[in-house]
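WARN no homologs supplied; continuing
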Amino acid sequence: MVIIRGSTNVTSRFTKAVVTIGNFDGVHCGHQAIFTRLSSLSRLHDGAPRVVITFEPHPRQFLSANKTILARITGLRAKIRRLEEVGVDGVLVLGFSHPLATLSAADFVQRYLIHGLKVREVLVGENFRFGSGGQGNLETMRKMGEIAGFGVHGQPLQRVGDTVISSSMIRKAVSTGDLQQAGAMLGRPFEMEGRVLPGAQRGRTLGFPTANIPVKNMLHPPLGVWVVQGWVDGRWWGGVANLGRNPTFGGGGWVTLETHLLGYSGELYRRWLRVRFLQFIRPERTFPGVDALKKQIAQDVREAARYLENLAAMNAKDQGVE
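OK structure emitted
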């Protein structure tokens, strides 16, 4: 997969493409249905390149009156990785700025789809909006496609039960702690990720070294202690993580994700770490002293280990392994 930064970098390899357009925050099950159908359209055109057009920063963040930071489900790095996993050929990342925000729907189609990519087919969600002020919709795109000679297809919204899958509903589920619902819409457990930065090294002195990721402006579940898995060295390691502000040590600033991986002894400082949330253990709370905290952490680790052991046993049973 190739990342294309801006339309001026589109090469002939990605022209005459089948294209989908959107923010794709989370690359959730609804998005995955689009990418599956995009591959079907590609096959109809003898393997035409499959191109995703997305935006950075997120348009909602740029267009908010006070530039409020949007809690993203997946940052750009994670989104690119997910898009590669679903098998697209190219991702055209358009910098969302005032010129793009004020571009009319007709000019967007002419500049990026007709002139830039020379598209054969366009596939978007049935609630798709584009152009300045969201003036364009699926029907607008269809009419433009008829004139310019490219096909336009609308993808029905996907549901989990009675809930329409959307990035907004996933954010709501995560922030309220309903990670089962969030996982059903994502098609995988909810994750947070970032670069491991140096902390106060308290975990080492307590006997439970942690990898610390600041989570400023990141979507996160309720604060507390969680059973997790961390992706390191090509595999998932079980672990326990504290998501919070360290009240016992006078914390109160930015929320930090402190992850202790069970059985892992390598150095994680400055490495990129993905943390998958599995089960809530307890809320964060203040302890009367270090000894009480150390005792509670040991109990949390035992509880996490039991949960992970039971999970492994259930997975083995599902796979027919006794």
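The two ends are 39 Å apart (CA to CA).
OK
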